[in-house]
Specification:
The chain has 205 residues and is α+β, with helices and mostly antiparallel strands. The chain is built from nine helices and four strands; from the N terminus they run βαβαββααααααα.
Length: 205
């Protein structure tokens, strides 16, 4: 299997972390986003949305990071990241959808305005976008912080796909100036995730 990614893309990072945690036999292939490789015909044949990550398993091609995470878990015998029972699985799915529809877009906007635009030489942050996204992130991390007050992991008593999905964008914290300072439970949880080998290897990949 091949997993196309970029080390600065947190959507791709959650997929890489999942592959590492599962011991999945994937070949990591860096897509040169800065020079527009994602918009060239060879990559567009894999993903017409010109986004990473993309998983290629033989003739099967899959994009969308959360779908890739689920697929990798499904094909890994004996895995424990993605529960098989309906209610525990639904709880993990709840956080995956929350990640995709709420947290990741808000963090993406802050990260793009404060980190990616300067790297691309596209000017300074848009104050209006930053203000709106900062407010959204503050509301969302408060939800996480309250949820984690009595829990070590997001869903149940063990690490799941939910933790990997949500930790990946929050890894942009310092550079994107994410407002996490008052969220002690969230920060403690994130520190636990950051001790994982998959976190270190996805950062260095």
């Amino acid at each position: 299997m091949r997993l196309y990614y970029h080390p600065l893309a947190f959507n791709a990072r959650r997929a890489v972390m999942t592959a590492v945690e599962l011991g999945a036999p994937v070949e990591l292939i860096v897509v040169d986003l800065k020079n527009g490789e994602q918009r060239q015909p060879p990559f567009l044949r894999l993903n017409p949305n010109h986004r990473v990550p993309v998983l290629q398993d033989g003739e099967f091609v899959l994009w969308e990071s959360h779908a890739i995470m689920q697929y990798l878990a499904e094909i890994t015998p004996g895995q424990r990241l993605y529960p098989s029972q309906p209610q525990p699985r639904a709880d993990v799915n709840r956080w995956l959808f929350w990640s995709a529809y709420h947290l990741s877009p808000a963090v993406r906007d802050l990260n793009f305005e404060r980190v990616i635009k300067p790297l691309l030489g596209r000017g300074g942050p848009d104050a209006g976008i930053v203000a709106r996204a900062d407010l959204q992130v503050r509301e969302l991390v408060a939800v996480l912080d309250e949820h984690l007050a009595q829990r070590q992991w997001l869903s149940g008593t063990a690490l799941t796909l939910a933790d990997l999905a949500i930790a990946a964008p929050l890894g942009a914290g310092a550079e994107a100036e994410l407002p996490l300072g008052e969220c002690a439970h969230l920060r403690a949880w994130l520190e636990r995730v950051q001790t994982l080998d998959s976190w270190r290897r996805s950062a260095a990949a």
